[in-house]
Amino acid sequence: MVGQVGPAGLDLSEAHRFPNRPVRLGDGLYWDVPALYQGVLDGLRQAARWGGVTSVGIDSWAVDYGLLDADGRLLGNPYHYRDERTAGVADAVSGRLPARELYATTGIQHLPFNTVFQLAAAGGSAQLAAARTLLLIPDLLIHWLTGTVGAEVTNASTTSLFDARTATWSAPLLAGLGVDSGLFPPVRHPGEPAGTLLPYVAEQTGLPSGTPVTTVASHDTASAVVAVPATGPDFAYISCGTWSLAGLELDAPVITEASRAANFTNERGIDGTFRFLRNIMGMWLLSETLRTWSARGLPADLSPLLAAAARSRPFAAVVDPDAPEFLPPGDMPARIAAYCARTGQQVPADQGAVVRCIMESLALAHRRVLRTAAELAGRDIAVVHLVGGGSRNDLLCQLTADATGLPVAAGPTEATALGNVLVQARAHGVVGDVADMRRLVADTQHLRHYRPNGDQRDWAAAANRIGLD
Length: 469
What we know:
Low-confidence stretches: none
Number of domains: 2
Structural class: alpha+beta
Strand order of the largest sheet: 15-16-14-13-17-18-19
Shape: globular
Number of strands: 19
Mean pLDDT: 97
Distance between the termini: 39 Å
């Protein structure tokens, strides 16, 4: 994406789009990270044709990592967080790192694929024994562009190996895990220089050698929260894509037994803030459903399916999106049908009913998480900002307003990319603080607004049916 930023202007254009196809080998599911890096180079080459590039910034998903040997070479493609090798690892780790101790230090919600459990699963492997540096995915790409190593703080904070209060790698946790603390590079913060493009990268991309690479909020959700177009303090956000990340922006972490029991996370945001949120399975349920239907030759065009869902009977069936059976790739419609049958609900009879079930289930999950976040943090919510790809889904946005009983402001769709370029722009003196960034987003991006309708008792009854209230 190419961003053009000024005091009163914010434009974003797509320079290049490339696929991200995980690869399943005999021993697991991997990211094809060399192909992703080639996509980055191709994108920079396209961006160079637009004119001068002031800065480059990279964000990506969290928790996954690459290992470098003593010569700085990658020791194999990184595992995909949906790989099954971490199944049951958390229980095995609990003897060395009890869940309460992990949470008390990191404030990070329990997810079976957190970096701490991935490293535990890799324990004793030749690859880990040969490793000298661990780089999270955006830091790995920056390393290949610049030759530098570092760990950006918003992504580092997701690993369950990072001290929430001190913003440093936790030596006691690393010792308890039996991992060499020397693997983990120094911490970088959004806005700091990350290096400049290496000569061979400049040659491949057409950008000048020495083009700055700026550290941004490299966790994609952290960048998305930067671009939430909030004009007041009492807002909640839902960054809705493959995952729905729903929560609040706070000045300090909430690390209590109640927040641990509710499985809330305290991930670092920009300027010392915290993203107090919970992961929800998100649009993954819909994308896997569409993929399954397409493979079977069934209609998989989203627009008519959403129209059919809007006509389907409300609350006929709902599921808990975070049920473990929905995490791996596979036949999502069959899993939804099995869940509904197991919980004594009507199995969705057609494609429209399946999509309605997914949309209402996500809205119910949004409702539960935001209510719990407000209670745990002692905060009021006046408006919900729904950003990311899900903001284009009118049905989901309206159902979220209905379920939460709160107004929803939808957009921008490309919040992550906007947050990325805004942090770069601030580092180069183009914009001011986060409030200025958000005002610029609100003034320049198209937003849609949804008011809550319907009876909250209907949502409460549906939530009670599957324990989501």
